[in-house]
Amino acid sequence: MYNVAYVHEDKCVADKGCRLCVMYCPEADCIHIDFSNKKALVITERCKGCVLCEVVCSTHKAITMHPVNGATGEIILGGEAGEAAGLGQAYAG
Ligand code: SF4
Ligand code: SF4
Known about the structure:
Elements (H helix, E strand, L loop, with lengths): L1 E6 L12 H5 L6 E4 L4 E4 L9 H5 L6 E6 L11 H13 L1
Antiparallel strand pairs: 1-4, 2-3
The site of one iron/sulfur cluster has 13 residues, from helix 2.
């Protein structure tokens, strides 16, 4: 299990012109603007979990990191639970 970025559409202001995460993500074709709703969209399979997008979105806090099931590609959301799992990963060595 590893962490990937997840966009909280209710907080994302891409519809107001923000493109910070798209500009700073080092992985090609990893974050797009979804033109159906004008919000940022992470392509989970391409995300390397570097956390840069979460850092550059610190004003709006629209991106958080969450564990993903490598077998199914399913992101395991759940606020504190996701963060706790992330910490657990770090300490698992
Ligand atoms: S940096 Fe944050 S607010 Fe800006 S487009 Fe990306 S997710 Fe949305
Ligand atoms: S965590 Fe890194 S690789 Fe993943 S979407 Fe954010 S900036 Fe891109």
